[in-house]
Inverse folding.
């Protein structure tokens, strides 16, 4: 079956593989991303690595029965051992490891409580990173994960598709507060919405929310949310990671700046964060049937009021591999 998407491959960029807390020392975590199997591991000293999952000796999956021994990963099939650079450092026979017994390694980092892995179609190293943010005065990130039949460019495009805010999400009002700006892998914009909270079983009066969007590539979107009525600030994370050309593992995350309201600070912080996270999940779940059944139209027949979709798509092209002889 032909792909619904005309994109030339999987876009390059940083993608989230999980929370830092999911991978303790001596743990191995299996993931399927970028149409291949990977393992993430933390050595005995706490160092994080990402490697291809299948042993180059005889093909065993290192995430199923493999184990960490200090700084080394041992294959469950024949006991070949690999270091964090993917080199085979020993065989069970005491003989010299074969030259071809080498695993591909993947650039990884841990930022903002999240494990991130870098993908590039040509295997190039990253020349940018998602910045570290001060989280000491913020709650931990709450995460919910979805396995979807869609593409990261589609999910990230929602942040600039203002036309669907009132049509799909029934916001009472929506508009731009700041135009789209791009600088290399970073796209920023600002908008506001007025929404009813009746979907959460709360009073129907409108509540204004103000958003500042920072998209670092197509795999990491941070939306900083201000709720003037509550004097509250939150961060919403939209983190799509491609499983292959057609499927995406989407993580939604929320954290909140801790309130300073005296004795009620902690319970109110927890309550507002929980409400905001539930609202985010409900909104995305309204988008899922559209994402999973739509096709990608290029060029789209845009109308005034759609939002800066053309600017977003122009910026997104930089993350795809260039065709031979083309700079498009």
């Amino acid at each position: 079956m032909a792909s619904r998407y005309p994109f030339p491959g999987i876009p390059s960029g940083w993608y989230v593989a999980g929370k830092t807390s999911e991978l303790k020392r001596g743990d191995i975590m299996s993931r399927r991303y970028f149409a291949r199997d990977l393992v993430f591991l933390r050595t005995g000293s706490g160092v994080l690595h990402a490697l291809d999952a299948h042993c180059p000796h005889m093909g065993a999956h290192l995430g199923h029965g493999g184990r960490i021994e200090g700084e080394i990963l041992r294959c469950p099939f024949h006991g070949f051992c690999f270091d964090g650079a993917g080199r085979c450092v020993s065989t069970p026979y005491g003989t010299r490891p074969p030259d071809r017994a080498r695993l591909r390694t993947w650039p990884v980092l841990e930022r903002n409580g999240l494990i991130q892995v870098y993908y590039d179609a040509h295997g190039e190293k990253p020349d940018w990173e998602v910045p570290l943010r001060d989280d000491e005065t913020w709650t931990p990130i709450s995460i919910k994960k979805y396995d979807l039949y869609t593409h990261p460019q589609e999910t990230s495009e929602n942040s600039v598709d203002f036309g669907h805010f009132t049509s799909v999400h029934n916001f009472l009002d929506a508009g731009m507060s700041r135009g789209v700006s791009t600088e290399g892998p970073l796209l920023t914009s600002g908008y506001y919405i007025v929404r009813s909270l009746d979907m959460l079983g709360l009073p129907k009066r409108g509540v204004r929310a103000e958003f500042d969007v920072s998209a670092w590539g197509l795999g990491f979107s941070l939306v900083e949310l201000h709720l003037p009525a509550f004097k509250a600030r939150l961060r919403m994370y939209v983190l799509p990671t491609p499983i292959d050309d057609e499927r995406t593992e989407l993580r939604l995350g929320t954290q909140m700046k801790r309130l300073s309201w005296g004795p009620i600070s902690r319970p109110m912080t927890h309550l507002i964060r929980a409400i905001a996270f539930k609202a985010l999940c409900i909104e995305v779940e309204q988008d899922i049937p559209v994402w999973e059944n739509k096709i990608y139209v290029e060029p789209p027949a845009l109308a005034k009021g759609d939002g800066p979709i053309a600017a977003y798509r122009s910026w997104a092209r930089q993350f795809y591999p260039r065709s031979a002889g083309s700079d498009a």
The first helix runs from residue 152 to 157.
